[in-house]
Amino acid sequence: MKKAFLVPLFIILSLIGVGAGYFTLIHFVIGDLGDVRVNLVNVTVSRVELDHAVITVTIELVNPAKREVKIDVMSVSLYAGSYYIGDVKKKNVTVRPNGKVFIKLDFPVYYSSTDPELIRVIVKNKTLDIKWRISGKLGINTSVGEIGKSFNITLS
Q1: I need a surface site. Which of 59, 95, 116, 139 has the fewest CB within 10 A?
Q2: Cα 51 from Cα 28, distance rounded (Å)
Q3: pLDDT 10s digits, 41-72
Q4: Which domain holds residue 58?
């Protein structure tokens, strides 16, 4: 009778311990990264070529913490309305205590695989006519993989 009671109790306590340990580890590993704010500042057309254009996205990272935050990988996806533009990764970004960093990311847009209406807006550089959205993740590399914070921001 005791065995029938002790085995499930041991399993339940083990699961609680593993779960609490996981969340504690995540909290200590992520640390101040969880407080970093991501802002979409600007979207512009920086270059127009014969077969493609380059859209430059300016992102602001704000660190309200009293310690420096090191981001190993920042991955960003860009959308023009519901149209997916592409992905860009930036490595090794450092944000000083109570500071901010502006990051410019370039997204190539090839005309052959893009909606004609979007091409018209890009060529005329009327980026304010589009609802731009970025989504992505700020990540820290650990021995158990990449852990981080996700974001999804619209430029209005």
Answers
A1: 116
A2: 47
A3: 999 999 888 888 999 999 999 999 888 888 89
A4: 33-155
- Show the tokens assigned to 100: 């901010």
Q: Is the dihedral of CA 60, 135, 84, 128 positive or negative?
A: negative
Beta strand 99-110 with 83-95 is unpaired
Both tokens assigned to 105: 């990311």
Residues in the chain: 156
Instruction: Give me the residue label for tokens 């090191």.
Output: 70
Q: Is residue 48 part of a domain?
A: yes
16: in domain:
no
For residue 102, how far is the Cα from the chain centroid? 14
Q: Looking at the predicted structure, is the pLDDT value of residue 132 above 80?
A: yes
